[in-house]
Amino acid sequence: MERVVTRLYVKDSLSEGATVGLDAAGAHYMRSVLRLNSGARIGLFNERDGEWLGIIDGLGKGWCSLQIGEQRRLPAQEPDIWLVFAPIKRSRIDFLAEKAGELGCSRIVPIFTRYTDVKRINRDRLAAHARESAEQCERLSVTEVVEATTLDKLIESWPQDRRLLVCAEFGDAAPIAQILTDLLVEEPEAGQQPWAVLIGPEGGFAKEELEALHRLPYVTSIGLGPRVLRADTAAVAALSCWQAILGDGGMRPPKGTTPVRGT
């Protein structure tokens, strides 16, 4: 497969022979950051249309147009796994958004709990990190970043068919690998169902919050080993385990699509 300089997520419909234009930010990235010229080959993708070859046919200050060539990858269904977490400090929450994207997370849901220290988040910045991670890691979709909410409101609106794994620092909780492996034996199609992972605040959940969570029929408490992990580490560990056992961890990256510099 013909290699490309980079990959870009675009919301426009993609089809052979069509032309798409980039916004000012995308044009700046092509012209001033990557320093590309007409004829450069770009991978254009979205979850509806898959990935297509885009060839720059015009580039200037604040604008860029691309001619769409052949389709490089068909659309593909991805695992439906959410990450629900209490916001943490800026550099670490940026890391979390990036890694959640790389690990195939379909949605990021920030929540405020009683002991959450961080009171505000920059949703646009997290969305930008999620988009960049999708462009880098060969995904065809971008992790959705939703508005922050409270734990109480989240529980009130939670879809009952979405199972929730609550990472428990202390108390009774079987190892995540054991829980998911046993479940896979009982339900071979479990990975095709909607799931979510909940990571608590750095100060831990309040007793009342944990009691409320444990009363919910779709909640399972899980353990991540004998060490107390930081929130961002716990999220990466839990998502990695879920993908390895129930998700698409057994698949390999698409051959020949890794972006390289030069045309």
UniProtKB/TrEMBL annotation:
Entry-linked Pfam families: Methyltrans_RNA, PUA_4
Protein name: Ribosomal RNA small subunit methyltransferase E
Protein purpose: Specifically methylates the N3 position of the uracil ring of uridine 1498 (m3U1498) in 16S rRNA. Acts on the fully assembled 30S ribosomal subunit.
Superkingdom of the source species: Bacteria
GO MF term list: methyltransferase activity
Annotated keywords: Cytoplasm, Methyltransferase, rRNA processing, S-adenosyl-L-methionine, Transferase
The organism of origin for this protein: Kiloniella antarctica
Major localization listed first in the record, in broad terms: cytoplasm
EC code: 2.1.1.193
